[in-house]
Design goal:
Layout: H1 2-17, H2 24-30, H3 34-37, H4 40-61, H5 64-69, H6 84-104, H7 112-132, H8 147-157, H9 164-194, H10 203-213, H11 227-237, H12 243-275, H13 291-303, H14 309-333, H15 340-349, H16 359-377, E1 392-396, E2 408-411, E3 421-425, H17 438-445, H18 450-458, H19 465-468, H20 473-485, H21 496-520, H22 526-536, H23 541-553, H24 560-579, H25 585-593, H26 600-623
Parallel strand pairs: 1-3
Antiparallel strand pairs: 2-3
Helix pairs in contact: 1-4, 4-6, 4-7, 6-7, 8-9, 9-12, 10-12, 11-12, 14-21, 16-17, 17-20, 17-21, 20-24, 21-22, 22-23, 24-26
């Protein structure tokens, strides 16, 4: 009889997965036998897991570029659609999947992990709907992460190149880039009609990026290859092809660059020159339609909290004061004759804190970064049970975008191991990357920061893919900043200048809370925000200019780092206090990483549940009679 009921349940499950029965919540009422009803939770969990995967697969199929990031080659010849119609269809698909999941799955029957997945899907759907009204409130071209630079960067760094078919897909993307840039110009004109125009002082960066892409062969008769042709030649040479096939690929790529890339970027430059006549120097998003509400929405999106701009601003002010006080203690130990601002100037001006602005100096910086990461790798078992299982390389930002790009950033590895994680460093001006900050920067972008977190998330095969490859800025960047701090707890930062560099980077994140809300909520000018950073941080003036201009084009994003770090520290302290001598930092790190990226409120729930479980385990162990 038991076999009959199990077979019946399998049949019911298959029907449910094919949407041929009623809602999951009512299935248990349709099965009369108690033995069969006991298996309902298993059935509901299987349905939920199937739907989560199916939904993720459909959404990923809508984004060829994200497929490439994940190592999926199904659409390597295409770009992701960026039309208004695509955004509308994406919202409809999101809501359709949530409607199906919420109707076909009984939340009360799910296990803990699937309940968390259900809550995350609900959270993501609500966030998508909240942000849809502001879908045009952004700057798709900018100096920080604009499409004009992402196209060549994507082809150079992300697009695969291990076969002839990969390179043919590269050429196909070159050929269709003109359509992509034309779509971009349409989007910019749409925003222009709504009064959403890039600030005037950003436009020269975007034009310079675009002109850099068109510099060199095959776009002109110079003796130097353009960045795209240089990259394509390197990739062709690595395949060891016969000359005929090699020359054919190079000819096809050059033709695509001349017929697609050149007219596309020339048209973009022409449009931006006209747009510049209408742009203003107003920096904050308060100038946009419903700008204040848009900014509140951005803060909710990036911090995953309901903090107000005023709350975030005040947290920033308090953190700046605290970090300044810690810096004062280091200055005293250094016996420096002067105040904090004098020490800042000393760090900016003394050449011993910088590598030379030469190829040798740049290589020395990259080599030192590798050495720091290697040293950290040997100490990982003091903080973690597991380390990353994918490679990491340290790489200078490409020349075509180095004048406008940020100081450092990270790109995750492909899941199949075909592409390593990449820790990028901008070495355009070596005075903007001081040696005393390198240790903390390496921990943040590499190990145990972004690379460790993303690598471990990709290994979480027990989770649905939308969680393994998901991202919440407060969690991801909060983790990176938290991991700048944690190596100090195991005796690293032995050099007090490196420890000061750690504090300098944390100070920069605290100042972001002040300047981001200052610009977008309190209506500070660009000059006011730059002056605030010049007064309160040791960073070079040009670096502060870049930082402020980044906050201007990505409102709210910069606040996520410090808010996330504070939450990781708060939860660690709670766990230490509650568990006492039973607390193990490796176990804490395992639990906060084992669920993939989470909004901060759900992260707190997960940690609190772990603390309760841990205490119950300890209490039950102590109740066992000792022999």
């Amino acid at each position: 009889m038991r076999l009959f009921f199990n077979a019946f349940l399998v049949t019911t499950l298959l029907c449910l997965l094919q949407s041929c029965t009623s809602r999951g919540q009512t299935v248990s009422h349709q099965i009369a036998n108690p033995d069969a009803r006991e298996l309902i939770p298993q059935l509901e969990n299987t349905i939920a897991e199937h739907l989560f995967q199916q939904a993720f697969g459909e959404m990923i199929a809508r984004s060829p570029e994200r497929q490439t990031y994940l190592g999926i080659k199904d659409n390597n010849h295409r770009w992701t659609d960026r039309s208004a119609e695509y955004l509308e269809a994406s919202l409809a698909a999101t809501n359709s999947w949530w409607h199906r999941i919420s109707n076909d799955v009984d939340y009360n029957q799910l296990n803990r992990q699937n309940k968390l997945s259900y809550e995350l899907y609900a959270y993501n759907t609500a966030l998508t709907n909240q942000g849809y009204r502001f879908r045009f409130h952004n700057y798709p071209v900018n100096q920080s992460n604009g499409l004009q630079a992402r196209v060549p960067s994507f082809l150079i760094n992300i697009h695969p190149s291990s076969s002839v078919s990969d390179l043919e897909a590269y050429i196909a993307r070159l050929e269709s880039a003109q359509d992509l840039i034309e779509q971009l110009i349409v989007n910019l004109k749409m925003r222009e009609k709504l009064g959403i125009i890039l600030p005037k002082f950003i436009i020269p960066y975007v034009i310079a990026d675009s002109r850099n892409i068109l510099a060199g062969r095959p776009f002109d008769f110079s003796e130097t290859d353009s960045v795209l042709l240089k990259d394509f030649k390197i990739k062709v040479s690595k395949l060891g092809l016969i000359d005929g096939k090699k020359q054919q690929l190079l000819a096809d790529a050059s033709t695509a660059m001349i017929q697609s890339i050149q007219p596309a970027y020339s048209a973009l430059i022409d449009y931006l020159l006209e747009l510049d006549k209408k742009a203003t120097n107003e920096a904050g998003v308060w100038k946009l339609p419903d700008g204040d509400e848009f900014y509140r929405q951005q803060l909710r999106f990036y911090t995953t909290t309901d903090m107000t701009p005023e709350q975030i601003h005040n947290i920033g002010l308090a953190e700046v004061d605290r970090i300044h006080a810690e810096m004062q203690e280091i200055i005293k130990r250094d016996h420096f004759d002067g105040d904090l601002h004098a020490f800042f100037n000393y760090l900016r001006e003394d050449s011993r804190f910088y590598f030379t602005n030469t190829e040798q100096g740049k290589q020395a910086y990259l080599s030192m970064a590798v050495d720091i990461l290697s040293g950290m790798n040997e100490r990982l078992d003091e903080l973690f049970f597991d380390g990353p299982n994918s490679d990491l390389i340290v790489k200078a930002v490409e020349s075509f975008r180095e004048r406008s790009a940020g100081a450092a950033f990270y790109s995750a590895p492909a899941v199949d191991g075909s592409r390593p994680g990449i820790f990028y460093v901008n070495l355009y001006d070596m005075s903007e990357v001081p040696i005393y900050e390198l240790e903390a920067r390496a921990y943040h972008e590499g190990i145990p920061g972004h690379h460790l977190q993303r690598s471990l998330a990709q290994k979480l095969d027990n989770l649905p893919d939308f969680r393994r490859f998901g991202s919440y800025t407060a969690y991801v960047e909060g983790w990176g900043l938290y991991m700048e701090y944690m190596p100090k707890q195991i005796g690293l930062y032995s050099d007090h200048y490196s420890d000061f560099g750690r504090l300098a980077r944390e100070l920069g994140r605290a100042c972001r809370l002040v300047t981001d809300t200052g610009i977008h909520w309190k209506r500070w000018t660009r000059q006011q925000a730059i002056a605030y950073l010049d007064r309160n941080t040791p960073s070079a003036h040009n670096q502060n200019v870049k930082a402020v201009e980044r906050y201007i084009v990505r409102p709210g994003q910069a606040t996520a780092y410090k808010i996330g770090m504070l939450k990781f520290l708060e939860l660690q302290k709670k766990a230490r206090d509650d568990l006492g001598e039973d607390f193990d930092i490796r176990e804490y790190h395992q639990i906060v990483l084992a669920n993939g990226p989470l909004p901060l409120a759900l992260l707190e729930t997960v940690v609190n549940e772990w603390i309760m479980d841990r205490k119950r385990q300890t209490d039950s162990t102590r109740l066992i009679p000792q022999k």
